Predict the structure.
Amino acid sequence: MKLILLGAPGAGKGTAAKMLTGLDGSVQISTGDILRGAVQAQSDLGKQAEAYMKRGDLVPDELIMGIMEKRLQEPDCAKGFLLDGFPRTIPQAEALKKLLAKLGMKLDLAVNIDVPRNVILDRLTTRRTCSNAACQAIYNVKSNPPKREGICDKCGSPVIQREDETEAAISHRLETYNEKTAPLIGFYRKEGLLLTVNATSSEAVVDAIKDKLAL
Ligand code: ADP
Ligand code: ZN
């Protein structure tokens, strides 16, 4: 399947994407994970992206399209992909449309995961992330803590609060979402690709997608 997952930070895009990969071998592509990996490695890309990310600002569209143009041509994408955190702006959505046309690929759906703001705020302040760039497993201090406090179950690295998950950076990320990313809902409605799911459980999100795609 070839899906875009839309939704505010904390809506559960990553969790739903991970569950969907198990269905048919489609790969999850998270621009946030790719960028955090690049920052840790201090690659050229990482150095360019770091300051924007710390502030909770979007990284420039050109950098993101550079990443995605390469990534979508890797062989593992042929089966399908779950785009998590991309596109984030109308120019990215338009560039993606051109890129997919060039690659002869067609999207199945753009899924808008619509979660109430109070739930989002609560999730983001209690979210913790594995500090190992190759793992980046996600935990929640209330609902899904690691078995040993502060240690990743999967790889044993320290589990930390992301630098952009302070109260101030979170409210800035949500503003950025409303201003720059929410307009994509209208964009994909016009394209005839939109599925809106009002669900706070990732299982329900996955079920709605399976129904729609008749899987
Ligand atoms: P979340 O969805 O939880 O906000 P992500 O992990 O998707 O977080 O992204 C973290 C940060 O990486 C964003 O705040 C932004 O700075 C940058 N980023 C990720 N994806 C994009 C994108 N498609 N366009 C611009 N910036 C991006
Ligand atoms: Zn880990």
About this structure: The first helix runs from residue 13 to 24.
